[in-house]
Design brief:
The protein is of the alpha/beta class. The protein is built from 19 helices and 26 strands. The termini are close together. The structure holds 6-O-phosphono-alpha-D-glucopyranose.
């Protein structure tokens, strides 16, 4: 989704802005733009499409030497994908220039009033009202004008603003949309909505909090509330593909390491328990809770569904899972004994963040399983556990998903051992968790087999995914991956449901991907497979190594290693990741940046 970058210092701004935009582009965007202050004048360039279009315009523009600038990648919300709607936006006089992430909810009223006052608008965006509002209040001092303008806004914003008539300054502001300032220690400052953008340059960052405004000049960074810079943990090389053709494939292949780092130092094998430092401050409160509500979106929601089964089976805590977008608008029954757990890779998903704020308002304990350190949800929740998957650049969540599952298993162990989970069962879970990185390595050798399968199935336009119990959410996730990466229609179902309608779809042109490891519901899955076979359905099965009988019932069998039932999804999802990936590649899709999608959905 949209990304902001800014620079003020002694170096040429444009290469830094372009690098930053490139490093933010994984989030999904459809146009881009930048503004540079060049010898007292402003130069603004915009382009529709990928960043190479902006790069081409930059080349035509002779070398820009300005040392102050802002850049933006836009994912359209208000107004179509056009140059006029791309950021930066400016006021009537070309004095104020700004880039914005978020949504200004009351922009219609504001625009109407500003037009009445004679302001001329050049775009259909909500953002442009901010430029005109700042213009309205501007009397040579940018921060004063910004402060007044912000008072009139409703919604969410991360803003970076400059004024030609108040030179050598960037004013930034934040409300419910992330924004940070990078410091290199060399009299220069970087602005970004995503730390990844400035990782090659900045050593430290200051994360702005809601309602804060910062004034950046070459010699100074002034924030209303004094804040200590935090060390930036991202590696500047993190975002490289490291020889893989796509980030998605690289991230699938990284899963032995990402699971290893999610588990590192957290398993207490002989005690059959888990050590989770992030929960230490609420340890006693966690003993008291009698319900957990998991809230999340997209792939993280599927992780939450598996978390529900784990927590109920092994920790004995009644658990509900909600789509954050539903939770925030229904009337959830929460009290002080309910813990509300957000699961989110980015830690910025607008619906999940809003749901957490709602739960806090109702007095619940709020927890997070979050990948992105210092993200909004990580900071909003009372306590939590980072799932430590590392930077995930592919829009589709792969390694984040499996590390969310490993972290949910650790949480189950932790809460279970506070309650009735026996040391023996705890030890068994701990032992199986330790084996996971090795088992994932074995599962990754399926790569070649699934690539061949994708060649066979690449022209099919409909798929059904079936699973039960722990693997029902994997059926949903497998279908979601195929939709988002290969643009193939796919439906995920609890296998018990096919008789209630979907079986009518089955014929030889409708392949069915069945997740059927040898577990407590395997016999039931076998019956479902027979039903599909009787209707000439083409069956692809994910089964446990050693299961020979399944070969007679299916067209293709993919074997995964044996593990504890609750951990099976961490292995069974991998074939579905590969399948979506190769289907996408073979169908010519942009697998790392699928059309219309964004990595981090910071608007409703
Ligand atoms: C977007 C991404 C998905 C992700 C979902 C939730 O739709 O494309 O991959 O699962 O948002 O994101 P979160 O950052 O909260 O996990």
């Amino acid at each position: 989704m949209c990304g902001i970058v800014g620079y003020l210092g002694k170096q040429k701004a444009t290469p830094i802005l372009m690098t930053g935009l490139q490093r933010e582009s994984y989030r999904g965007y459809d146009s881009s733009g930048l503004i540079v202050v060049e010898k007292g004048k402003t130069v603004c360039l915009k382009a529709v499409g990928k960043l190479d279009k902006l790069e081409a315009k930059l080349k035509n523009c002779n070398s820009l030497t300005g040392t102050l600038g802002l850049g933006h990648v836009r994912w359209a919300t208000h107004g179509g994908v056009t140059e006029a709607n791309a950021h930066p936006h400016s006021d009537c006089k070309g004095n104020i220039w700004l880039v914005h992430n978020g949504i200004i909810e009351n922009y219609r009223e504001l625009k109407h009033d500003l037009q009445q006052e004679g302001h001329i608008f050049g775009s259909e965006t909500d953002t442009e009202v901010v430029a005109h509002l700042v213009e309205k209040f501007f009397h040579k001092n940018l921060e004063e004008a910004v402060r007044k303008a912000l008072k009139m806004l409703r919604g969410a914003y991360a803003l970076a603003i400059i004024a030609k008539d108040d030179p050598g300054k960037i004013v930034v502001a934040r409300l419910s949309s992330p924004l940070l300032i990078g410091i290199s220690g060399k009299k220069e400052y970087f602005v970004a909505s995503d730390a990844n953008a400035i990782a090659p340059y900045a050593k430290k960052v200051v994360n702005l909090d809601d309602n804060e405004i910062a004034v950046i000049t070459p010699n100074d960074l002034m924030i209303l509330k004094e804040k200590q810079p935090e060390t930036l943990e991202l590696e500047s090389g993190d975002a490289q593909k490291k020889g893989f053709s796509h980030f998605m494939l690289k991230e699938i292949m990284e899963q032995p390491d990402s699971i290893d780092s999610a588990l590192k130092g957290r398993i207490l094998a002989s005690a059959g328990a888990a050590r989770l430092g992030g929960l230490e401050s609420v340890k006693e409160k966690l003993r008291e809770i009698d319900k957990i509500d998991i809230i999340s979106c997209g792939t993280a929601y599927h992780a939450g569904m598996i978390g529900e089964y784990m927590l109920e089976e092994y920790a004995g805590i009644p658990t509900d899972v909600d789509l954050a977008s539903e939770f925030r608008y229904r009337k959830p029954i929460l009290d002080k004994k309910t813990a509300v757990l957000a699961v989110s890779q980015s830690g910025e998903t607008a619906d999940t963040l809003a749901a957490i704020k709602e739960a806090k308002r109702k007095g619940s304990l709020t927890l997070g399983i979050i990948n992105t350190v210092s993200s909004s949800i990580a900071r909003e929740t009372d306590a939590g556990v980072y799932n430590r998957a590392g930077a995930e650049i592919g829009v589709a969540s792969t390694k984040s998903f499996t590390s969310q599952l490993a972290t949910l298993a650790l949480l189950t162990l932790y809460l279970g051992r506070q309650r009735d989970l026996s040391v023996v069962v705890g030890q068994r879970i701990a032992k199986e968790l330790q084996k996971l990185p090795g088992l994932i390595k074995t599962t990754l050798t399926l790569d070649g087999q699934i690539k061949k399968m994708a060649e066979k199935y690449k022209d099919y336009n409909n798929f059904l995914f079936l699973g039960r119990k722990y693997n029902y959410p994997i059926a949903l996730e497998g279908a979601l991956k195929l939709k988002e990466i290969a643009y193939v229609h796919a439906e995920g179902l609890g296998a018990g449901e096919i008789k209630h309608g979907p079986i009518a779809l089955i014929d030889e042109n409708f392949p069915v991907f069945v997740i059927a490891p040898t577990d407590s519901v395997y016999e039931k899955m076998l019956s479902n497979i027979e039903e599909i076979k009787a209707r000439n359905g083409k069956i692809i099965v994910v089964a446990t190594e050693g299961n020979e009988e399944i070969k007679n019932l299916s067209e293709d069998v993919i074997y995964i290693p044996k593990t504890l039932e609750m951990l099976t999804p961490i292995l069974s999802v991998i074939p579905t990741q590969f399948f979506a990936y190769y289907m996408g590649v073979l169908r010519g899709c942009d697998v790392d940046k699928p059309r219309n999608l964004a990595k981090s959905v910071t608007v409703e």
